[in-house]
Amino acid sequence: MKHLNLKQILIPAVIVLSAACKQEIKEEYTMKREIFGEINGKKVELISMTNNEGNTIKLTNYGATLVWLEVPDKDGNKENITFGYETLEAYLRGDPYFGSVVGRYANRIAGGKFTLDGVEYELAINNPPNTLHGGPGGWHSVVWDIEIIEKEGEEPSVKFTYISPDMEEGYPGEVEAEAVYTWTDENELVIEYKCSTDKKTVLNITNHAYFNLHGAGNGDILDHELMIAAGKFTPVDENLIPTGELRPVEGTPFDFTTPHIIGDRIEADYEQLRLGLGYDHNFVLDNKSEPDAVVYEPESGRVIEMNTDQPGVQFYCGNFLNGLEKGHGGKIYEYRSGLCLETQHFPDSPNKPEFPTTVLEPGKPFTSKTVYKFSVK
Ligand code: GLA
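Predict the joint structure of the above. Result:
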């Protein structure tokens, strides 16, 4: 599908002129839709979007999932840097969170219970003793509807929508959820969410993409350098539930306010690293300046700059990966071979009145935006 804009109309002429002068050929923005499979009579598609730099991402409406993201290294070699599978069957059998949207409540709710206006709600326990990422039938595992949004003079977007029924997985209220992906010519993956409810409920929505800047399946991420603009993090108990404390990162292995190599302090003698089995914690973003986080891998030169309007980010470094998952090209996703920057509200907020609220009320839709920008240096 073409993205008709002035730029595109002008591009053929630009190619001819600039190819001769600058050896710089810009490609046209393209979108391709293919059938990926079917679940309970609903079509699942694979949508590929190639920007004017010739870099491709692939999405599927199963779990509103990012399947593939291919960007060049500093020498121009393109490689997929996000975890994903080649078939829908593999998604159904494999790690349910590779690249997917997670909801209705991302991360953990302690004991799978919370109280709203005096009523206690019980959720399915899928990460004993807690509920993780919405529950076993969370939004990562449902087929979303697809709408392509064409915008004059801009890149197209893919809008996934899902109506989550009242009491689905135990949560009150029918929620209409939207996750809109845009892949820009500047190699930015823009993800925008909008959710509204007909009854008071709780909501925390994110994307669970794993990245490895060497290329997905090419070794671990311990040599990646990370900056997170977060002066505090939320320490956890032995069940990975925040204790409620907002602990300053200063003087701890959690201080990424200046760039640090991930592997440098991951084995440090620090209780929170033992409890998390490494880094698997919510960082309290300063939200004062941009970017909120930067990942850099010196060998490839690839960089991710992340910006969000959310109060937190879960930095998870693949501590639960065990080499059993085979993704694109049969590559194995080993222990600590991918990192996630899941932008979010804090885990277990429904049971922590001191945390920013995750209550969603009728007539007050939740909106948020996260941008991952890919470049080289
Ligand atoms: C999040 C959690 C982790 C783990 C992964 C999925 O990052 O914080 O503990 O559950 O999702 O494996």
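The chain is about 10% helix and 35% strand.
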